[in-house]
Every structure is written in structure tokens, then in C-alpha cells.
Amino acid sequence: MKRKLTIGAALVALVVALGVGAVVLQKRAAVQAAGIQAPRFEVDPMWPKPLPNHWILGMTIGVSVDAQDHIWIIHRQGSLDLKETYSQQNPVAGDCCAAAPPILEFDEAGNLIGHWGGPGPGYDWPVSPHGITVDYQGNVWIGGNGNGKGGSGPVVDKVEGHVDPGAYHDSMILKFTRAGKFLMQIGKAGASKGSNDIANLRGPAKMWVDPKTNELYVADGYGNKRVIVFDADTGKYKRHWGAYGHKPDDTDPGAYNPDAPHDQQFRSPVHCAVLSDDNLLYVCDRLNDRIQVFKPDGTFLRESFFYPKTLGDGSIFDLAFSKDPQQKYLYASDGTNQKVHIIDRETLEVLTSFGGGGRQPGEFYAVHSIATDSKGNIFTTETYHGQRVQKFVYKGLAPVTTLDQGVVWPKPSE
Questions:
Q1: pTM for the full model?
Q2: What gap in Å lies between CA 133 and CA 65, rounded to an integer?
Q3: Which residues pair with 372 in a beta bridge?
Q4: Which of 172, 280, 309, 344 is the most exposed place for a label (fewest CB within 10 A)?
Q5: What is the pLDDT of residues 138-169, one digit of tens each?
């Protein structure tokens, strides 16, 4: 009797397995039959090259690529643990290690070619740096999301870097030359009055400069719930808006509920704002798991939701465009599900994803920011204890055979 039961259970398990396998094969066949193609990538496990002086990275919360295809990152020195910085303690506690300077510049080969950053005369350095953008003129912009409670660093809540509404130290954005010379500050530390204050920011997450108009778009941010636009030369206020083009409202919306009606305001953080060549502004409403699309004047056009059952830190951290002339694809970093999603920009549908949680090359731990170079390569950074930058080499277009590629490890050379 036991033998019959065992055989029966095995048959049932086999039938179920065959059924699941058939469904997977049907889905794969349907994708292949549709002739869908998407960009393909492989991680470069040797990029970047080792840093000098036993320097290490803290939470790495911004990446940008300039006109020379140099890769810029910003990280939080203050996020390193005591045992990670023995060599910079007084007295020195060991040979290794020390925090790297906040801003690092790499060439395409992964060589460190520049470094600077930190407090200086004439400006308020952020308590908790967040986001870096190198504009079309080579100027470097940074934001921050540090709190005003003693100035020692961000109060980390359930969301990365999120702090309760109220006084923020980091109520400003800074503009520097590529060599680190201070040029301009918009906003004053600790001065924000909320999402309709046109003189100050509150936890600005990312900046983007339009070369056609020289306007600076700011995803603002961790304390505010808006996009705000300034003149990139003078810092003069231009306009701002919230979700759906509404006037921003700082009322606490309560916990995110994927089954509730769609929020009529952005949730904090408003984590990115990136402008396409055809003048569409894509905004990351991170905790609402959505992208909203606007005209540059703030007119709402459409939205799309991505993995809306994602709770945690949300699914849409940052966006970058593919480098084909039409910018057919969006690349989205998802620091909760630990993937990069490749999105059809016309339909706003995910075509395929790569990555997965882990510490090895090609895996992610809190993938945060994303950028592309002129060759189509992707660069990502990781926050929390991810603390690194990675390069994914563009390998051309290929048929989509699976929705989840996993780790895109280099293929053996033939």
C-alpha cells in the first residue's frame, strides 16, 4: 500500500512539473514568436580597477556619464562602519581602510582619473549626498537627503535615506566645475517650507539639465513631493508641479496599498526626473511603483505601474535612456527586487530584466542609480551595504527569450 501511495505521489508531482514546464515553454515560445528584441548586456567583472590608498566606498547613491564618456559617482563617506576605516582613525587602528573622496571620476577603462568633494567655503555640503549629474557643459550637480537633527547623517527609516517631514539640512543643490570649483547653490540648508516653497529644496534626489533650454529639472524629493525647474545658469525659479500635474500637497498619504485607488500625489521620495530627446519628462514615483510622463511644462501625459505589489523601497529607483537615435528603451533600476528592467519606451512595458540579489558581479544589493554612455553600456550603483559601481557592456539587440535573464555573466570566448 505504501509503495502504491509513493508511486501515486510521484506521478502527481511529475504531472505538475510537466504542466509548469509546459506553461514556461509556451510563454517563451510566445515571446519568441512575437519577434520582440531588446538590448542585451554582460557584466564586466573587472570594472572598475582597484582604488588607490586602500580607499573604499560607502553607500553609492549617484552615477552620471559626461560627454567624454567619463563615469562619475558620488558616495556617502559617513555611511562606512568604524571597522571599515581603521587607517583614518586617530590613533591609526590598522592599515586598512579609508573612505574615498565623495566624488570619483573614472575613464572607460575603469581607471580613477579624478576625485574631490566635501565641505568648503561659500556653500553647504550635504549631510547625506544623493545624486550626481554632469550636464552638457561639464558642470557637476549634486543633491542630498540629510536631516536637520544634529547634522550627523540621515535618519534612516523604512525607506533608504527617508526622513520624517520637517526640517531638512539638505534643502539645497550644488553646482561645481568638473575640477570641483564651487559655482552656485540653490536653496539654503535647513530652510525648506515644503513642497510649494520656490526658494528651497527638501531632500533633492536627482537633477537633469536640458541642453536645448538650459533648464534644470530636479526630482524633489525625499521631503517634498514634486518636480521643480530652475534656470541652470542663474538658479532662477521657473515652475513646479506634483503628480498628474497637480499642485503638490504634503499631507501624509499613509502606508502604500497596491489595492487602493491610485495616489493623486507623489510619495516621497520623488527619486528621478529624466528628459528624453523628444521632450518627454519621465518621473520616478518610487514608493508608488510607477513612472509618470509629462511635457516639460508639467502637463501630465500618462503613467505606468511596475510590479505594483512591491512594498519595501518601491520598484522604480532611477531611469536611463538607451543610446539609439530614437531612445527606444528605458532602463530602470529596481533596488527592492534587485534587477534592471528593460522597458519599451513607447508602451512602457517591461520586455526583460537582468540581475538578482547577491554580492557577486552582475548581482545587486540595493541597486540605486543608473546611467548609460555613448556606446550604450550601463553603469549602476548600489546603496546600503551594496557600496559599489558596476558596468554592464552593451552587446547589441537580441531576441527576448525570457522575462528574467538572471545574472548576465560574460559568455565564454569562442
A1: 0.88
A2: 8
A3: 378
A4: 309
A5: 999 999 999 865 433 334 344 444 444 456 89
The burial class, CB within 10 Å (0-12 / 13-18 / 19+), for 12 is exposed
State yes or no: cis peptide before 161, omega within 30 of 0.
no
86 φ/ψ angles, rounded to the nearest 5 degrees: -55, -40
Closest CA to 103 of 88, 119, 89, 87: 119
Query: What proportion of the chain, given as a percentage, has pLDDT over 70?
Result: 87
| Residues comprising the chain, all counted | 414
If one counts every other C-beta atom within 10 angstroms of the C-beta of residue 293, the result is 17
Give the separation between CA 379 and CA 312, rounded to whole angstroms.
24
Handedness of CA 299, 302, 307, 311 (dihedral sign): positive
Q: Of 134, 212, 207, 210, whose CA–CA distance to 173 is shortest?
A: 207
Owner of C-alpha cell 529607483: 317
C-alpha cell at 284: 520616478
Nearest to 176 by CA among 102, 273, 227, 226: 102
Q: How high is the pLDDT of residue 412? A: 82
The whole-angstrom separation of Cα 111 and Cα 365 is 23
User: Phi-psi bin for 312: left (phi > 0), alpha (psi -120 to 50), beta?
Assistant: left
